[in-house]
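INPUT
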Amino acid sequence: MKARVIVTLKAGVLDPQGKAIEGALRSLGVEGVAGVRQGKVFDVELDAADRAEAEAQLKAACEKLLANLVIENFAIEIA
Amino acid sequence: MKARVIVTLKAGVLDPQGKAIEGALRSLGVEGVAGVRQGKVFDVELDAADRAEAEAQLKAACEKLLANLVIENFAIEIA
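OUTPUT
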């Protein structure tokens, strides 16, 4: 079973990396960019019997390793 | 206009970071993980008149900065 986990910074958490990308895009002549925030994506291949089991495994993975829940949110998409 | 750009490694490109995450999840007792590949996500706020203009701006951003087209694919989602 294939799944995608997207980890993004919570609102209000500063994102200097995103700010740098925003500035770089402007320098490169890409117009209309008003803001950038960077996050992480994990494409996970799972051996799970059903979607509920897959979701439980991914939730555990996020809480234990993939996301820092103090400053990050995660979203799970199961294909 | 809000948009999300997802940059992932092309198939066949080695992903040692993903392999390390896979091993770490196994060590932490998360079961059923058969593979992990890590990518990047960019949440972009755009000043664009319409979806076509937004898509053109994002495509330029990906080609110029966000993705390395030799080893990475990108996908654009406009909200």
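end of record. Strands of chain B lie at 2-9, 33-46, 72-78.
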